[in-house]
Write a structure and sequence with these properties.
This protein is α+β, with helices and mostly antiparallel strands and 300 residues long. The protein has two domains: 230 residues, Hsp33 domain (3-Layer(bab) Sandwich); 57 residues, HSP33 redox switch-like (CBS domain Like, Alpha-Beta Complex). The chain is built from nine helices and 13 strands. It has a six-stranded mixed sheet, with helices on one face. It has a five-stranded antiparallel sheet with strand order 8-9-2-1-10, sandwiched between helices. A hairpin with a 3-residue loop joins strand 4 and strand 5. Helix 1 packs across helix 2, helix 7 crosses helix 9 and helix 8 packs antiparallel against helix 9. The termini are far apart.
């Protein structure tokens, strides 16, 4: 299958099973996020890196309708950066301040300054167990790749190399991608050294994706590590909001709050953070939801 110019995720065995890699091209989905939210270049880079990492986390999920949410709150002017992926590697996300702009102090966009590092990366995995898995780590730099590497090492006890990159011009996302490399239990000292010595090759992932795309990046980055592609997954930006889901959310507010909304506002508008779609509810709509909420309360 030719992956040229297509987003996708590859799961790859390295060094005859002593390590593994997850490689993603995410140019299209980051471009879609930029268009939906009207993101500045810095916001595109910050959200794009987070969406890319979260899509890779989603590709690790096994069960139907499982999901993973990654949120970064670093105290910087961009505010919260949040992304969600399901087991199909469909991702969505947003930032609090999509128009964030800061002066450059070097060749790269100042993502770390926008995000800040006085806070945490939180990863929540909903695998339909009694309680969701929640992992938290203090931010290392706010550059996002280093912060996800710390998450894997500290929260999942899996030392990992993580590279994330978004190359964005004024008009469009030129390229975006990511790579996670992890040693497997029992890896030899030689395997460990091979991975460590390769780290520098992985850093310009957006440049590699622009030049080689996903199909060429495997050999460009990993050929010396004996890559064996195990699985190809598609990935995209997709919001799964619906009027029915918003109605259920309004019902959960309870009869009192819905009643107050009817008396004070006579209507409601609910905006989706992930796709900016607006759902309008008339007074009659709200009264129908109030009846459903009242019936629900009566059953308790």
């Amino acid at each position: 299958m030719n992956l040229l110019n297509r987003d996708g995720i590859l799961h790859i065995s390295l060094l005859e099973g002593q390590a593994r890699a997850i490689l993603i091209e995410s140019t299209g989905l980051v471009q879609r996020a930029k268009e939906i939210h009207g993101l500045s270049k810095i916001a595109t880079a910050a959200l794009g890196r987070t969406l890319t990492a979260t899509a890779m986390l989603g590709s690790m999920l096994k069960g139907k309708d499982e999901s993973v949410t990654a949120s970064i709150r670093g105290g910087g002017p961009i505010g919260t950066v949040l992304a969600v992926s399901n087991e199909k590697c469909e991702v969505k996300g947003y930032v609090d301040n999509p128009a964030i702009d800061l002066p450059r102090t070097g060749p790269k966009l100042p993502v770390g300054a926008a995000v800040g590092k006085d806070g945490r990366l939180t990863v929540i995995k909903d695998m339909h167990m009694r309680e969701p898995y929640v992992g938290q780590v203090n931010l290392v730099s706010g550059e996002i790749a280093e912060d996800f590497a710390m998450y894997f090492t500290a929260s999942e006890q899996t030392p990992s190399l993580v590279s994330l990159g978004v190359l964005v011009s004024d008009e469009k996302v030129e390229s975006a991608g990511g790579l996670i490399v992890q040693l497997m239990p029992g890896a030899s000292e030689a395997a460990i050294q091979s991975i460590e010595m390769s780290a520098g090759m992985f850093m310009d992932i957006s440049g590699t994706m622009k030049e080689c795309h996903l199909d060429g990046a495997v050999n460009q980055l990993l050929l010396h590590l004996q890559p064996e592609v195990l699985e190809l997954r598609e990935t995209c930006y997709r919001c799964d909001c619906s009027r029915e889901r918003v109605e259920r959310a309004l019902i959960t507010l309870g009869a009192k709050e819905l009643g107050d909304m009817i008396d004070e506002q006579h209507s409601a508008q609910v905006d989706c953070h992930f796709c900016n779609k607006r759902y309008a509810f008339t007074e009659d709509d709200l009264k129908a939801l109030l009846a459903a909420a009242t019936a629900k309360d009566d059953k308790k």
